[in-house]
Specification:
The protein has eleven helices and seven strands. A seven-stranded parallel beta sheet has the order 3-2-1-4-5-6-7, sandwiched between helices. Helix 2 links the parallel strand 2 and strand 3. It has a single domain, classed as NAD(P)-binding Rossmann-like Domain (Rossmann fold, 3-Layer(aba) Sandwich). It has 262 residues and is α/β, with parallel strands linked by helices. Helix 1 packs parallel to helix 2, helix 1 crosses helix 10 and helix 3 packs parallel to helix 5. The chain is 47% helix and 12% strand.
Length: 262
């Protein structure tokens, strides 16, 4: 299937590892040009993206530096003649609970997880509008269901979903599509690190996997990337304002189905 993204520029924040890297890699494999904005880039990932796409670029960036965001977005647009798509992805669950988190720390968490989604979209939009392109926000099921003891992260993710629907409304007249993907349980490097907080990480993993209706397994990075790249592409030309949940039915079905393991 031709996704019609050949030579189209897609900026991916946090595209050095995990879900972001999976999206960058598939964008390149499908003929697009991924541009990664991240604090660092593993050498092996950098080399793989270069092998897949000669025009691929990596820019080291502090996403809390809004002047740097403005500068680098303009640089990318000038060099490549435009920007077709943006994937807002960077961020991490910092487990900040209301009972032990100050307002100052809450704002700091929003700087890490929320404000740069707004800043990146603001700077990219003039170029995306010219190409009638697409924005994809990577959010989280936590922003829908809550998790307990993650007030900062859960509220940031909920706000990202608000951005998604607001921008979809605001820019439909410009034929710009804005969607979000809300992953649930995906084995990323950050998720592996989180599992180590438990006395028995393997047992905790198996407990979570058992609750996922479709296959009793975690969603893969590749499955998230497949959904992301298709949704960004012109083939999803009438899809906007959606919160997509490729999660094996975890959020919507796990409480409705009574699975018999025997």
């Amino acid at each position: 299937m031709d996704l019609k993204i050949k030579n189209k520029i897609c900026i991916i924040t946090g595209g050095a590892k995990g879900i972001g890297y999976g999206i960058a890699k598939l964008w390149a494999m499908e003929g697009g040009i991924p541009v990664v904005f991240s604090r660092s880039m593993p050498k092996e990932h950098d080399e793989e993206l270069k092998n897949l796409c000669k025009s691929y670029e990596f820019y080291e960036i502090d996403l809390k530096n809004y002047e740097q965001i403005e500068e680098l977005v303009k640089k990318v647009a000038t060099k490549h003649g435009g920007i077709y798509a943006l994937v807002n992805n960077a961020g991490a669950n910092d487990n900040l609970h209301i009972e032990n988190t100050s307002t100052k720390d809450l704002i700091k968490s929003y700087e890490n997880n929320l404000f740069h989604y707004y800043a990146m979209a603001k700077e990219c939009l003039p170029y995306i509008k010219k190409e009638q392109g697409s924005i994809l926000n990577i959010v989280s099921k936590t922003g829908i269901t809550g998790q307990g003891r993650t007030s900062a992260y859960a509220s940031a993710k909920a706000a990202q979903m608000g951005f998604t629907r607001e921008w979809a409304c605001a820019f439909a007249k410009d034929s710009v599509r804005v969607n979000a993907i809300a992953p649930a349980e995906v084995m990323t490097p950050l998720y592996e690190k989180w599992l180590q907080n438990f006395p028995n990480p393997k047992e905790q993993y198996e407990k979570i996997a058992k609750a996922i209706p479709l296959g009793h397994r975690f969603t893969t990075i590749e499955e998230i990337a497949n959904t992301a790249v298709f949704t960004l592409s012109p083939l999803a030309s009438h899809t906007t304002g959606q919160i997509l949940m490729p999660d094996g039915g975890y959020v919507h079905l796990d409480r409705a189905l009574n699975w018999d393991e025997n």
